[in-house]
Task: structure prediction
Amino acid sequence: MSSILRTKKIALVDCNSFYVSCERLFNPKIRRKPVVVLSNNDGCIISRSTEAKALGIKMGEPYFKAKDIIIKNKVEVFSSNYSLYGDLSRRVMRTLKRFNSDMEIYSIDEAFLDLSNFPDQDVEKVGKEIRETVLQWTGIPTSIGIAKTKTLSKIANQIAKKKQSGVTSLSGIDNLDPVLEKIE
Result:
């Protein structure tokens, strides 16, 4: 009987610019444009596309403070649609459960998934498969960070957001100090 080394591996699956991604699903004309979604009563910016972030529009910033940048750059602006976001969140979470029912929904657009049942050397490949499946089945892009604790998987997710693959695993790295030193 052979035993395969399996360590604790927790994936944080985070939907990218979730509210903007939901709006883009039903409005393909805004796919590559700067987009923001506003809070209840259109008070603050609660979701930004990559293009809007590049313009310097800040998360949580009151709309009136960003209005000049928004108008000047023809940023698409949406009032929040929580019934739409809730429906798409449920679809994403149902899709994630197919990989492992041992899952903790962390917020409307994030969930921790236990991947300990997969061999260490396969975990990044599994992360890519999860990402591709969620995108294909729901239309929502994600980033996935994998590590042995929830905190480290959150950090791995921050790194993943900046990578083309959208997946980062810190599993199997003995000394994480060089990685952590680069994180703000």
In short: The helical segments are 18-26, 50-54, 63-72, 82-97, 123-138, 150-161, 177-181.
